[in-house]
Amino acid sequence: MAQYDYDLFVIGAGSGGVRAARVSAAYGAKVAIAEEHRVGGTCVIRGCVPKKLLVYGSHFAEDLHDAKQFGWDVPECAFDWPRLRDSVLAEVTRLEGIYTNTLDSNKVEVIHERATVTGPHDITLAGGRQVTARTILIAVGAWPARPDCEGAEHGITSNEAFHLETMPKRVVIAGGGYIANEFAGIFHGFGAHVTIVNRTDQILRGYDEQIRDRLLQISMTKGIDFRFHAPFEKVEKQEDGSLIVHTGGGGDPLHADVLMFATGRVPKTRGLGLEEAGVELDKHGAVVVDADNKSNVDSIYAVGDVTNRVQLTPVAIREGQAFADTVFGNKPHRVDYTNIPSAVFSHPPMAGVGLTEAQARNKLGSVKIYTSDFRAMKNVLAGRHERALYKMIVEEQTERVVGLHMIGPDAPEILQAAAVAVKAGLSKQAWDETVALHPSMAEELVLMK
Ligand code: NDP
Fold it and tell me: Which class for 63: exposed (0-12), middle (13-18), buried (19 or more C-beta within 10 A)?
């Protein structure tokens, strides 16, 4: 008789957990995966995927406006939020089905219950059933954090934003990171007045300063308001359901129909039994793991946002793959965290890979900076004044391109391809020797002088 019920028990069917489960099962492991919400996790159910569809949806506001300059007579258009919301939610359900089928076809047992860890090899399911596994993988992700202020319960997070009954007219967004800037563009596109309230005066900390400044400037020109150095003090709910948001740092109270907290995401380890099982967590509740995703307990591993390394879906997927290859596939390897490209799907989007100018100066000393500051051809004809900005950071001694940062239409699409060259460590000369593809925005990358 087998010593354990399963070779692998995964808790959390998000991007990292699903990849680890199905690859491990394909290697012959007996695998179960427990999910208390929906298969697909944050990215598919309440993150990247529905968010990107809303970004597309909101961009039509500008596209329809610009279409007139391209000769199209566009009749008066109205936006129907419930129609978009429901088609996005239907797409999410379709994708959930695909994820579930993938698990089924790889013979992974899907358990739709909350699971908690009750020992190095022990799991207890919400229904009371107890199971054992040779290896346990924690892939429960992260959950939106809410600032601790009076009335915070009246606010929503991005989780609920996909399900709103009606499109609000006034939206206050707390935080200045990815989610705040992406949803500012979404709500603004759908006609809401948006105010971003941030505790510092910096949005998107970690991105290149010039690129962030350009997003701020374009967002303000579009009509998105920003309030900086403004911690949340109190939120009051009015009889009509609207909210009054009091912030520090001066300024009148803000009136809003919806207040959305986008103030970071915390590892979802509370009540999971990890500490009782002897697993070390850091001060944010993240599972502390080594380069092979192993915790201090030999049989317990963790991948994805719950480890609070890089909170990005493709990274969680790579960690899940590396875990399965190493533990069950006899093909040990580790995730390379250098030069990870990332993007913010704001209006316009921004994207970056490698070192920012400030990081490069600190790390390498002397660097050369090349920029291209231009108006996309389509924007010129549309009479739209917003300018794109591409910035290349080159190590002076070796001429190696060590960072690339962009804001402008399709920046994430362009950057994904360019990231290959940055990752490969190509020199500026190699970029210059590549013939431009004309007319395109991406050609600026090989024309920077
Ligand atoms: P971010 O970490 O991007 O931004 C959090 C923001 O909230 C910052 O401006 C931060 O300020 C502020 N903040 C943090 N704590 C508090 C507090 N207690 N009170 C007031 N303000 C606070 O988090 P998001 O919630 O936007 O997104 C979570 C994560 O999800 C991201 O880090 C990213 O990894 C991932 N994500 C990725 C996306 C993508 O790849 N396109 C899209 C959406 C999310 P300060 O800068 O001062 O700390």
Answer: middle
Q: Report how far apart, in Å, the C-alpha atoms of 40 and of each of 6, 34, 400 are.
A: 22, 12, 39
CB-count burial class (<10 Å; 0-12, 13-18, 19+) for 127: exposed
Task: For ligand 1, say whether the CB of 345 is within 6 Å of any of its atoms.
Answer: yes
Does ligand 1 come within 6 angstroms of the Cβ of 212?
Answer: no
pTM above 0.90, yes or no: yes
Is pLDDT above 80 for 22? yes
DSSP for 219-266, written as a single string: HHHHT-EEE-S--EEEEEE-TTS-EEEEESSS-PPEEESEEEE-S-EE
Q: What is the pLDDT of residues 402-426, one digit of tens each?
A: 999 999 999 999 999 999 999 999 9
What six digits make up the tokens of 23? 């690859």
Catalytic residue of the set 59, 188, 193, 438: 438
Catalytic residue at 438? yes
CB burial of 43-55 (b: ≥16 within 10 Å; e: otherwise) equals bbbbbbbbbebbb
Ligand 1 contacts CB of residue 176 (under 6 A): yes
- Residue identified by tokens 């593809």 is 437
Distance 368 CA to ligand 1 centre (A): 30
What are the chain's domains?
A: 6-144+266-327 (3.50.50.60), 152-263 (3.50.50.60), 342-446 (3.30.390.30)
Tokens 């998000």 correspond to 14
**Could you tell me which residues come within 8 angstroms of residue 83 by beta carbon, excluding any fewer than 6 positions away?**
none
| One-letter amino acid for residue 224 of the chain | I
Quick one: which H or E segment has residue 116?
Answer: strand 115-119
Ligand 1 center to residue 194 CA distance, Å?
A: 17
